[in-house]
């Protein structure tokens, strides 16, 4: 035990040493001189120092981890709606990087969106960058790296924005009892994050190098983490085989899943008709499971509070996960930082980039309950667990807790209910314009290699992260090509994601800047010129009345046929923003597109954000 503590403190010691080194070498801090904005309220100042370290998140020794102020996940940023924020990133990593505020609309501050090649240049080693923005929205968000695959090295942390008092809560749809309502409000005020992520034993650079060397889509992770903690629990091959889904067995054609529970890269159907070099696959990419004894996250609850509230944050880089707390149903009351009519469910399925805010009633016998997450999807069999423990009370629980979900992330018993995305009703309802001014159809497919992807007519090269940021050069030749779309301010825009199949996993599509209305999705080819035309043929698949407002949504899996997904938004925030797949290896492989929103009303960039400014 003592030994473990010393090991877990090494990153912190390194962080202090690094900080000391930086303080000696750093130029005078210029942030104050460059401070902008005329808000009467002082801005909330928050700073993270990025350092590289050997880490042991799942008990496996992993060089090249990223820590934020010596921590992982990064420290919680807590705000109140309306706050102005000054988020400073000190980069002590040996390479440039940027930080993005996932789901934050960056209304009026497109220069703080954190996308290299679009809104800024990478923050160089030893340099800092101040992201200034306003918390116009409330709810659950997170910050994460947006350069190369740094998010896979652990650069992420939670953000919670307390809703203004004037914003109506949906809690009276759960109960009208005043004690219950007070308990729910109090729980909401004390919302804590549960960061769900996946973890690889190879660094993001090693994963990318391996993709280039093998030509393969590296769709396999080493472990799942809950609040940054976890273990590798190699399942016996018989268990893996027993749980292999029939559809996967068919793909495997007589072979079996790897010891990491992944589809072997030699299964041609999943990697597409492209050349591969299997001898360049490093150990641990698809197989080579090594069990570890890592640490377990503990969530404490006090039953006197009656309710607990959590932000479930989908910070994975690769995998879709099911999540549940044994014997504790959850009221999902917000999705992607926007209230909904509460849905009472036993389990949720959470994709990369998605956030659910949930209320849980603490009415079970006091004791310990297993918190479970498991990959749900066909690509891998893997799970993780944490513990929910009742404190400040006498424990009366008599048996081990009963699971809602199994290691496949499926219902463990017949009566378990999953959150249903199609049944989300926003609170309050907002209605989009009934017709769009412009429609873009973006094709999602492989592009010349298993690991390269399109979003639209072309594949967005990773090298563009190092080019001149388009926010500063909206009229350059680079801003007029297949890698950008252009919209006019105030107009309504439809984007149809046309998954041209065959055999693609769901792609978690994330749009930067303001949220979008999720109009619908379906299986089969999208053969329509517009949503209006589609609505005449498949009205049941499109919701123009009370669609959810989201910033991240999964395309339907294209298992045997193509699939599609339609979103609509109004352009209100001129600037250069990315829309992309939130699976990091797909984003690195080009599944991204730049939206030059409101090119006719382009913003004037403040002095301190001009390229080459010393701020
Ligand atoms: C701040 O106020 C000054 C003086 O009133 C004004 O000139 C300036 O444009 C304002 N700046 C911002 C960022 O609003
Ligand atoms: C609480 O009261 C409101 C207004 O009368 C009603 O719409 C709502 O359904 C009630 N909630 C519950 C849980 O009964
Ligand atoms: C399945 O395996 C058999 C025997 O090895 C082989 O003949 C056949 O071509 C395979 N089918 C596919 C779809 O790969
Ligand atoms: C395949 O990878 C191996 C190991 O990295 C390498 O030695 C070999 O040259 C590669 N083959 C081709 C055709 O690139
Ligand atoms: C996965 O689930 C099994 C069955 O509940 C459990 O024994 C195991 O500890 C879980 N694995 C991890 C890494 O938590
Ligand atoms: C899970 O739910 C499905 C659909 O309701 C049901 O068919 C299946 O039997 C359930 N699984 C278990 C293990 O009960
Ligand atoms: C999900 O909700 C939609 C819309 O209410 C409904 O049509 C569908 O049957 C629900 N699906 C499940 C699995 O309950
Ligand atoms: C991709 O493949 C197409 C043909 O399928 C070819 O025309 C194009 O040049 C290739 N692009 C790259 C970048 O290799
Ligand atoms: C893709 O190419 C077609 C044909 O040239 C064009 O009509 C369409 O606008 C392009 N789509 C995008 C998103 O650039
Ligand atoms: C962009 O359009 C929105 C919505 O019509 C409007 O509120 C906003 O003022 C416009 N912005 C600019 C810079 O014109
Ligand atoms: C959408 O994808 C289908 C293939 O599934 C393709 O035939 C069609 O041309 C695509 N639509 C557009 C507008 O590119
Ligand atoms: Cu993807």
Automatic annotation (TrEMBL):
The keyword Transferase does not apply. The keyword Signal applies. InterPro entries: Cu-oxidase-like_N (IPR011707), Cu-oxidase_2nd (IPR001117), Cu-oxidase_C (IPR011706), Cu-oxidase_fam (IPR045087), Cu_oxidase_CS (IPR033138), Cu_oxidase_Cu_BS (IPR002355), Cupredoxin (IPR008972). Transmembrane segments: none annotated. PROSITE patterns: MULTICOPPER_OXIDASE1, MULTICOPPER_OXIDASE2. Residues 56-164, 192-391, 480-597 form the Plastocyanin-like domain. Coiled coil: none annotated. Keywords: Copper, Glycoprotein, Metal-binding, Oxidoreductase, Signal. Residues 1-25 form the signal peptide. Pfam families: Cu-oxidase, Cu-oxidase_2, Cu-oxidase_3. Belongs to the multicopper oxidase family. This is Laccase. It comes from Paecilomyces lecythidis.
């Amino acid at each position: 035990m003592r030994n473990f503590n010393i090991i877990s403190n090494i990153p912190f010691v390194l962080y202090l040493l690094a900080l000391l080194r930086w303080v000696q070498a750093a130029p005078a801090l210029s942030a104050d001189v460059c401070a902008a904005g005329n808000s009467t309220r002082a801005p909330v100042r928050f700073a993270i120092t990025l350092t590289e370290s050997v880490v042991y998140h799942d008990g496996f020794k992993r060089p090249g981890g990223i820590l934020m102020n010596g921590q992982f996940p990064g420290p919680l940023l807590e705000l109140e709606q309306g706050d102005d924020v000054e988020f400073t990133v000190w980069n002590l990593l040996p390479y440039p990087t940027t930080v993005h505020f996932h789901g934050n609309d960056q209304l009026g501050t497109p220069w703080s969106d954190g996308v290299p090649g679009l809104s800024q240049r990478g923050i160089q080693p030893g340099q800092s960058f101040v992201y200034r923005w306003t918390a116009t929205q409330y709810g659950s968000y997170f910050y994460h790296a947006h350069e190369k695959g740094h998010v896979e090295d652990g650069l992420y942390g939670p953000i919670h924005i307390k809703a203004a008092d004037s914003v109506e809560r949906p809690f009276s749809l759960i109960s009208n009892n005043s004690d219950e309502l007070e308990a729910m409000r109090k729980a909401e005020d004390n919302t804590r994050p549960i960061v769900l992520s996946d973890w690889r034993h190879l660094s993001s650079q090693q994963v990318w190098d391996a993709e280039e060397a093998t030509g393969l889509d590296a769709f396999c992770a080493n472990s799942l983490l809950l609040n940054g903690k976890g273990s590798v629990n190699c399942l016996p091959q018989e268990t893996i085989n027993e749980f292999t889904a029939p559809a996967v067995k068919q793909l495997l054609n007589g072979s079996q899943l790897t010891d990491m529970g992944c589809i072997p890269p030699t299964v041609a159907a999943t990697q597409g008709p492209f050349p591969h070099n299997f001898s360049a696959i490093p150990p641990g990419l698809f197989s080579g499971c090594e069990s570890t004894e890592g640490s377990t996250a503990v969530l404490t609850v006090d039953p006197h509070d009656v309710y607990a509230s959590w932000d479930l944050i989908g910070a994975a880089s690769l995998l879709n996960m099911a999540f549940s707390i044994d014997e504790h149903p959850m009221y999902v009351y917000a999705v992607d930082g926007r209230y909904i009519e509460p849905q009472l469910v036993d389990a949720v399925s959470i994709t990369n980039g998605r956030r659910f805010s949930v209320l849980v009633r603490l009415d079970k016998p006091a004791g310990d309950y297993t918190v479970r997450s498991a990959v749900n999807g066909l690509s891998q069999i893997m799970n993780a667990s944490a513990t929910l423990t009742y404190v400040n009370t006498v424990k009366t629980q008599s048996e081990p807790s009963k699971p809602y979900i199994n290691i496949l992330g499926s219902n463990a018993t017949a009566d378990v209910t999953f959150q249903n995305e199609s049944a989300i009703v926003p609170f309050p309802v907002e209605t989009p314009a009934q017709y769009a001014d412009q429609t873009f159809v973006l094709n999602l497919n492989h592009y010349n290699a298993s690991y390269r992807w399109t979003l639209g007519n072309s594949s967005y090269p990773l090298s563009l992260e190092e080019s001149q940021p388009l926010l500063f050069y909206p009229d350059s030749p680079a801003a007029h090509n297949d890698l950008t779309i252009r919209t006019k301010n105030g107009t309504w825009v439809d984007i149809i994601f046309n998954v041209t199949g065959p055999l693609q996993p769901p792609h978690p599509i994330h749009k930067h800047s303001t949220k979008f209305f999720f109009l619908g999705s379906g299986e089969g080819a999208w053969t329509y010129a517009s949503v209006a035309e589609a609505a005449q043929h498949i009205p049941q698949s499109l919701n123009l009345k009370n669609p959810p407002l989201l910033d991240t949504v999964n395309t339907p899996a294209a298992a045997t046929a193509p699939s599609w997904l339609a979103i609509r938004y109004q352009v209100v925030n001129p600037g250069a923003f990315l829309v992309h797949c939130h699976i990091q290896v797909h984003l690195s492989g080009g599944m991204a597109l730049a939206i030059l929103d409101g090119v006719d009303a382009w913003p004037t960039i403040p002095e301190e954000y001009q390229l080459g400014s010393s701020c």
